[in-house]
Design goal:
Elements (H helix, E strand, L loop, with lengths): L1 E7 H4 L10 E4 L11 E7 L4 E7 L2 E3 L12 E4 L9 E2 L5 H11 L5 E3 L4 H9 L15
Parallel strand pairs: 1-3
Antiparallel strand pairs: 1-8, 2-6, 3-4, 4-7, 5-6
């Protein structure tokens, strides 16, 4: 499966790169999330950007103390599928769809199983790694 995660610098107070690791966090358990799934990390607000994409290598429960105590799940990957940060514009139809259906509705962690146009747009940003991103099933 493919998942989109939104990292709000306004809410978190720092950019995603400040994590110092390839990770995403969820406030809920994600029983459908599996090893090998792809996580696409979008950062905003202001200038939106695709800041990371990775295959899920492992998950764990975050520390109950500290800045991530409110999260129930930490999702980690080993390598980025993205060569560099990519700025995103609402002029891109697929990103406009992602923005209106997920980000403005505060769906900060969601499956892209029913969003082939969005998924195609994201995959186009990683042309050198598309063999790793080939669909299987509803992925």
């Amino acid at each position: 499966m493919n998942w989109v995660v939104y990292h709000s610098t306004r809410v978190m107070g720092e950019p995603c790169s400040s994590l110092g690791e390839r990770a995403a966090y969820s406030t809920r358990d994600r029983p459908k999330l599996g090893l090998g799934d792809t996580v696409w990390v979008i950062e905003g607000p202001g200038e939106f950007a695709l800041v990371d994409a990775f295959k899920v290598a492992r998950t764990e429960t975050p520390s109950p103390v500290g800045p991530f105590a409110r999260f129930k799940l930490k999702i980690m990957g080993d390598i980025s599928l993205l060569a560099a940060r990519v700025s995103l514009s609402l002029d891109l139809p697929w990103f406009n769809r992602l923005h209106s259906a997920y980000l403005t509705k505060r769906r900060f962690f969601g499956s892209l199983g029913n969003e082939p146009e969005v998924l195609s747009g994201l995959r186009a940003l990683c042309p050198s790694t598309n063999k790793l991103l080939e669909p299987s099933g509803d992925r």
